[in-house]
Design a protein that fits this description.
By secondary structure, this protein is mostly helical. The protein is built from 18 helices and four strands. It is globular and about 110 Å long.
Length: 558
């Protein structure tokens, strides 16, 4: 038994010794060489500099001490980064630059739109001041409610008709959802007729850039509608005014605006027919003011003159407004708002030649100034006295006339355009009253219609070819240049636009309002007109404490 135990112990010792020796041999076998670690991806030099700058940026502790000089606020630390751990990259910086450009343009366009909206107050004061006190409430209410009528119609359908095919504006992020223009093929060319995207601002139109252009274009549309209320004051039914305003905001105005600004056929006269840069209307002498003035003429012709305006022999009687101070204050409000109207039509203050906003503002100011001088001097020479109401209309006429060429002309040209407008408004007021026998209480047809056409024409004469809005206009390379600077084609394109305004816009407006005349009628009764529209139409006097005097001459004329 002892021998057996000794043999088992010996076997275990041998086994342990073998295991030890084998383990040592295995441990001495060299391990396979480790693979080298992957080299870190090279950091682009620009990104490295950005990260270095970020490391040196002011810390929250630095900023907590205050920054009275503004040297610590607005650094690379304020750049939005995609990966906070990785830090700023070139892509982050590029995205921030692009967003800042669009943001600047958004803010500029919106603020200018707010200024244009404030012009509504100026129109209300001018129109009410130039009419009689017995109609003050009615006149103010038309100027108030036209905003709601126009806005509703434009939101539902007008904006889509005008701007539904206007994609491609780089200032406002491209406006890419507005990419559907109904077109026709004629003479082997495609011509835009009306837009098809943007109804109710729904669907793809729910877009930040689309909202900005909607607001800006809406207040322009509303300006055109307001022009009609002044020309038709003191005898227009409030219900018919409301229906007319809705139709104009939904159809008449957007249609011509599409042809000029929304990618329609007038803007394509250059690309399709080689007429320079096509119909060019920088801020709306034609689109806004002529459309409003020509529509006013059509409605006034249907309405007829106020009782007592004309004698049996055709001579005219002056009907004096009740508040010249309101008129002149209103004119100043309008002149202030025009700094949104014209410079704002760049649709941006950054990139694409938008630094010209200063030149546009000065051209606007100068034209208004010389327009005032032109009207005052004309009335002083012809009538022997300067006329306050015509002085105000001269200011507005100069502003209307410079609206289309403001983005394309020099300061001296702007002064000339305004001076001619100031004289032209006086001549036109006399012509409309004495020759056409149309009664326009505020001179809106002459201020906006006549001088709107003059502004459109002046683009074809005075545009100097120095503007640069992204290197092209209406899809044609180069800058808009008029006849006086060597391009007769631009004048031809402007004449096509004028012909369209007089032919199509007038005819359409007249036909629509004749239909309204048949179904609901435009004019209040003679009794209502003589007593004043405030009580019968609105139920309340504008100035309840005033004592009214009778108008026996007008009552007899009735």
């Amino acid at each position: 038994m002892k021998a057996s135990l000794r043999n088992h112990l010996l076997a275990l010792c041998i086994l342990a010794l073998g295991s030890t020796v084998g383990g040592m041999a295995y441990a001495q076998t060299p391990a396979a060489p480790a693979q080298p670690a992957a080299a870190p991806a090279p950091v682009p030099p620009g990104t490295a500099e950005l990260r270095e700058a970020a490391a040196k940026a002011p810390t929250p502790a630095d900023l907590a001490k205050g920054d009275p000089g503004g040297t610590l606020t607005g650094t690379i630390a304020d750049v939005t980064v995609a990966d906070a751990k990785a830090g700023p990259t070139l892509a982050d910086a590029g995205n921030q630059i692009g967003q800042n450009k669009v943001a600047i343009n958004f803010v500029w366009t919106l603020i200018c739109g707010f200024l244009v909206m404030f012009m509504q107050a100026g129109f209300a004061m001018v129109e009410s001041g130039l009419t009689r006190v017995k109609n003050a409430n009615h006149t103010y209410m038309m100027n108030f409610f036209v905003y709601g009528c126009g806005l509703l119609a434009y939101w539902v359908v007008g904006f889509a008709i005008q701007m539904g095919g206007a994609a491609g504006n780089a200032n406002l992020g491209g406006l890419n959802p507005l990419a559907s223009e109904h077109s026709i093929s004629l003479f082997g060319k495609t011509w835009g007729v009306f837009g098809q995207t943007g109804y109710f601002l729904a669907g793809t139109s729910y877009d930040v850039g689309v909202m900005v252009i909607f607001l800006f274009q809406m207040v322009f549309m509303d300006t055109a509608l307001t022009i009609v209320t002044g020309a038709c004051a003191e005898r227009w039914k409030f219900i018919t005014f409301s229906v007319t305003s809705v139709i104009m905001g939904a159809l008449t105005y957007p249609l011509f605006a599409n042809w000029a600004w929304g990618g329609g056929w007038l803007s394509q006269l250059g690309t399709n027919l080689g007429l320079s840069h096509g119909y060019s209307d920088f801020a709306g002498s034609g689109v806004v003011h002529s459309v409003g003035g020509i529509t006013a003429l059509a409605v006034c012709m249907i309405l007829g003159p106020r009782i007592g305006k004309f004698n049996r022999d055709g001579s005219a009687n002056p009907i004096i407004g009740h508040d010249i101070s309101a008129v002149l204050i209103g004119c100043f409000i309008l002149a202030f708002g025009w700094f949104g109207f014209n410079p704002g039509s760049t649709l941006g203050a950054s990139s694409n030649g938008n630094l010209r906003i200063g030149s546009i503002a000065v051209a606007t100011m100068l034209a208004g100034c010389t327009g005032t001088f032109g009207s005052i001097l004309y009335m002083w020479i012809v009538k022997g006295k300067p006329d306050a109401s015509m002085a105000g209309n001269g200011l507005l006429a100069g502003l209307v006339a410079i609206t289309a060429p403001s983005g394309f002309v020099s300061a001296p040209s702007a002064a000339i355009i305004g001076l001619i407008a100031g004289v032209l408004v006086c001549v036109s007021v006399s012509f409309v009253e004495k020759v056409l026998k149309v009664d326009d209480p505020v001179g809106a047809i002459s201020v906006h219609g006549t001088n709107g056409l003059w502004g459109v024409l002046s683009v074809g004469l005075f545009a100097d070819g120095t503007s640069n809005y992204g290197g092209s206009w209406n899809g044609v390379p180069g800058s808009v240049t008029g006849l006086f600077y060597g391009d007769a084609g631009q004048l031809a394109a402007q004449l096509v636009g004028i012909s369209t305004l007089l032919g199509v816009v007038f005819t359409l407006s007249f036909a629509i309002n004749m239909v309204l005349e048949y179904f609901i009628g435009h004019r209040v009764s003679a009794e209502t007109e003589l007593n004043g529209l405030d009580i019968p139409e609105m139920g309340q006097l504008g100035y309840p404490e005033f004592v009214f005097r009778p108008e026996p001459g007008f009552a007899k004329a009735a």
